[in-house]
Amino acid sequence: MKNYSFKFLQKSSLFIALSFCMSVNASINASEVKDVLLQKYMINYSDKIQIAELKAETLKQGGQSVEALIEVMKNGKYPDKNRWVATFLLGQIMGDKSAPFLAKFLKHPNWVMRMASLKTMLALKQKEYGSHYAMLLSDDSFIVRAQALDNIRTLKIANSAPQVWAMLYDKKNYYLPTMNGKELKAKRSNIIKSVILTVGDLKFQQAKIPLIKMIQKDKYNDIFTEMDISLSKITGQKSPDTDSKAKRIFWQRMALNTTIQ
């Protein structure tokens, strides 16, 4: 009986020792992986092949690369394009679990990080962060605003429709052309077309009457097609496949019918 107990204690001690060694080795390996990756992410790569190799190496390490990716995202000493890559890879490796962390970067002072987080969260189909995307519809960066709009449109976040509509009245979405040093009348940027299409995709009913009024006016001819498409989606009615005059008459009648009803 004593021999059995002694052998059992020996086996137990051996198991504990092995487990401890495995734990220490895993910790060492994770630390080594982080150090190696951080060195590689510090390099300002000049071509796509090198970036592809960096991505492959990171994905190969899987979960062990997470600490390094977070460090790269948080630290401005790393090149912006590498921080962009780190953001995407974090989402790819961690999946939905990365969303709360990514959402924090939507307020990052560097537009590159705001943009990277938006695109990564779109890839992860994070629809529940609609209010975060809506906040960025008035961002100082044009491409960040455009990406936030794309997130809302693609994920069909109807609750953000009022903020999308408000973009029509934001001066940042217009530009002032000049001639001989003099500013001309403000022009709509291309994002306005996306705004019109988005309110249609979101079936924003409050936009129906304003759009019907706008489509009657020549000064909105540059967004006529987009207004026609959106009105069709909002109302469920399709205008005639003829000229703009016939379409205008169709939508005018629609407005009258709506008023009468």
Index terms:
mainly alpha, two-stranded antiparallel sheet, elongated, 13 helices, 261 residues
Description:
The protein is mostly helical and 261 residues long. The protein has 13 helices and 4 strands. Helix 2 (48-61) runs parallel beside helix 4.
Quick overview:
This protein is mostly helical and 261 residues long. Helices cover 65% and strands 3% of the residues.
Present the secondary structure layout.
Elements: H1 2-41, H2 48-61, H3 66-74, H4 80-94, H5 99-104, H6 111-123, H7 130-135, H8 142-154, H9 161-166, E1 174-175, E2 178-179, E3 182-183, E4 187-188, H10 191-201, H11 208-215, H12 224-235, H13 244-260
Antiparallel strand pairs: 1-4, 2-3
Helix pairs in contact: 1-2, 1-3, 2-4, 3-4, 4-6, 6-8, 8-10, 10-12, 11-12, 11-13
